Amino acid sequence: MDLVTFRAVLFDFSGTVFRLEQDETWLADLTDHEGERLDIEAQTELMRRMTAPVGQVVDLDEEHLHAWNHRDRDPELHRKVYLEVLKQSGVPHADQAVALYTRLIDPTQWTPYPDTEAVLKGVSGKGVKLGVLSNIAFDIRPAFGRRGWDAYVDEFILSFEVGAVKPEPEIFRAAVERLGVDPAETLMVGDSEEADGAARDIGCAFALVEPLPTHERPDALLNVMRTHNVL
């Protein structure tokens, strides 16, 4: 098989280069309808629902279903529906839900994968264009900026700024246009076959990584870059 020489790599954010790790201090004081603290199983399910890349995670009425379907295009709709998700997931107290939601959308609270820095630095150092493409309703640039990694990223393509979401082709087209590359010379790396894999619809290549806890996935990004002859 002939190896493509990629001129650009697009990385998904959540579950790909960063992960929202469960922090016991965030969840320790959460209480249910009876005032009982959430057990570990409930806490784990709560975090899964808050970070699932695709798929509706709770039953929603028409108003909240609209918010869910458009959550990554509009920060207000994102806040509205995820407060409802928290409410239905065992966090009925509004003050607790707001406090947790505020932490979940703070990009400085997210944890990078062990090989994220090496990959970003390596790809950029090779002269390959690098973009971060995410379905998200808040600005993730501070997660990179506080570590100096924003210097390696040519473009951030964020759904709430672009007005399109994966798997819609428009967001991938916006990415390659901003980077000034052809889709056939672009590799998309992400943790969702459904969302990120749709980059293939405009002619990009795609590589899947598993959204495992960061300590369980030390070198998946490096392996992808080596397999695709980027590094």
UniProtKB/TrEMBL annotation:
PANTHER family hit by this protein: HALOACID DEHALOGENASE-LIKE HYDROLASE (HAD) SUPERFAMILY PROTEIN, PTHR46649
InterPro entries: HAD-like_sf (IPR036412), HAD-SF_hydro_IA (IPR006439), HAD_sf (IPR023214)
Protein name: Hydrolase
Classification via Gene3D superfamilies: HAD superfamily/HAD-like (3.40.50.1000)
Record's keyword terms, sorted: Hydrolase
Annotated signal sequence range: none
A GO molecular function held by the record: hydrolase activity
A Pfam family reported for this protein in Swiss-Prot or TrEMBL: Hydrolase
Organism expressing this protein natively: Amycolatopsis decaplanina DSM 44594
